[in-house]
Each structure stands twice: as C-alpha cells, then as structure tokens.
Amino acid sequence: MRAVLQRVSEASVVVDDACVGSCGRGLLILLGVGKEDTEQDARRLWNKVFGLRIFADDAGKTNLSLADVGGEVLVVSQFTLYADCRKGNRPSFAHAASAEHGRRLYECFCECASADVPHLGKGVFGANMQVSLVNDGPFTVCLDTGH
C-alpha cells in the first residue's frame, strides 16, 4: 500500500458538486492499494500513520501524533499512486489492485482509522473527485508497505 499524508488545517472532497467528505486539523491521506497488499498491510499502515509524530508541540518540534492532537482524517482512494512511468509517456497501472481488491483494503484501512480518530471523512472509491486542502506547513510524507 502507498499513502501520501498531508498535514492539513482542513480538507474536503467533492463528487458531482456535493461535498462527500471533509476533515479539520489533521491529515489528508491519499491511499493507493497494490495487487499484493493484504488486510494486514492496511492495519500496519494505519498504525504507522496514527503513531507518526508529525504535529508540532508547544516548542514547535514535531513530537505529537494524531492521537496527541485529537486530529481528524480524510481518506481518499488514489490508485494512481501505483503509476509506473519508467517506459514511454503513458503511465502503466499494472501493479495497482483490481477495483474489488482495492475497495476491500481501502475500507479496511478506513475502518481501522475510524476506531482511532474523532472524525473520519472519506472520498468515494472509484469516483472522479475534486480534493481541496489547506496544507499545514506544508508537511507531506510518503509511506509504502514495500510490496
């Protein structure tokens, strides 16, 4: 699995002119699922995200986690994180999960997150989405489970 985490003041996702998910202070997570990813990968990735100390303490040091700041989360599926651009000019998505597999692991990741955060917003899996955010910092981190 691959995730791009953006520390945000706020973020939202719109589908067909309707806001379907949002969050306040916390993380916007763009989540990609690969062919070989498992539910164990989803749980492990969420645990890593939840424990990351990427929020500033009173001294301005990045010492606080989502739990420490009561942060909110918006998770948006993004299979394009598995784009392979090594050959030619058109990306290949051969390593991305099938829609069924990707949806199952996206939902597993979201279930893990919803158990830990006060507010979880979600995009619509497979939809054309418009994502808006106010990046705090900016502070962006990429994580990969290594498959």
What characterizes the major β-sheet? 6 strands, mixed
Helix and strand content put the structural class at alpha/beta
CATH superfamily: D-tyrosyl-tRNA(Tyr) deacylase
CATH class term: Alpha Beta
Describe this structure as you would to a colleague.
The protein is of the alpha/beta class and 147 residues long. The protein has a single domain, classed as 3-Layer(bba) Sandwich (D-tyrosyl-trna(Tyr) Deacylase, Chain: A). The chain contains 3 helices and 8 strands; from the N terminus they run E-E-E-H-E-E-H-E-H-E-E. The strands form 2 sheets. Strands 1, 2, 3, 6, 7 and 8 form a 6-stranded mixed beta sheet that branches. Helix 1 runs parallel beside helix 3. The model has no long low-confidence stretch (mean pLDDT 96).
Q: Short description, anyone?
A:
The chain is α/β, with parallel strands linked by helices and 147 residues long.
